[in-house]
Amino acid sequence: MKNTKFIHSLIAVAALGTLSLSSGTLAEGSIGSQVSNTMENAGAKIDNSLKKVDDSLKKIDNAATEDSSGIAMKVKKALLEDESLKQGGNISVATKDGVVTLSGSVHNLAQSEKAMAVAAKVMGVKSVNNKLEVVKENTAQSISAYTDDATITSKVKAKLLTTGGVPSHDIKVVTTGGVVQLTGDVENAEQSKNAEKVAKETDGVNKVINDIKVKH
């Protein structure tokens, strides 16, 4: 941005210098209308020169952006083709001015170092900023299992909410490893039985533990 302003200033100064000389010469000849025309022409030349500079700078910026995108694509391709990284979690690639930033997760330190080495070998890469997090497989599996249980719980609650004769607001649902536990208080045994039936018919449920208390 500073370079652009500097270039614009140089063009303006040069053009104004020309304008001053032309105006002085014409003033001596007492040709007022020609002075006005000369000023307008000089102004137009300044505008055209500035536009050319802006266009050139835009082309440079666009070329730099295309280069960064191209490098990022090459790095992603190289990572996908590496056998040791095919089960390497989730790796994101960002590139700016030849500097590649790796983010996301891998299963171990070896994969993190491998990803960094693969990226560094790609043509056009100047350096690699490794921000990958190591998440062990059992941790990843635990997260996945927790997500599945949460989904099942949401499904059971939604079905209870839309089932007539079941006081869904009085029933608590907890899911662990696909096993749904129902707790709370209901007015009669029929409501407890209906809640259990709804839970058993929900996709993903392996077993239902009915701990609902019947008031009457």
TrEMBL record:
This protein's UniProt keywords: Periplasm, Repeat, Signal
Where does this protein come from, organism-wise?
Candidatus Fukatsuia symbiotica
One GO cellular component term? periplasmic space
* Signal sequence range: 1-27
Domain BON spans what residues? 67-136, 148-216
**Which compartments does it reside in?**
Periplasm
One Pfam family name is: BON
Q: Which SMART domains match?
A: BON (SM00749)
Q: Mind telling me what this protein is named?
A: Osmotically-inducible protein Y
User: According to its UniProt record, where is this protein mainly located?
Assistant: periplasm
Q: Which InterPro entries match?
A: BON_dom (IPR007055), Lipoprotein_DolP (IPR051686), Transpt-assoc_nodulatn_dom_bac (IPR014004)
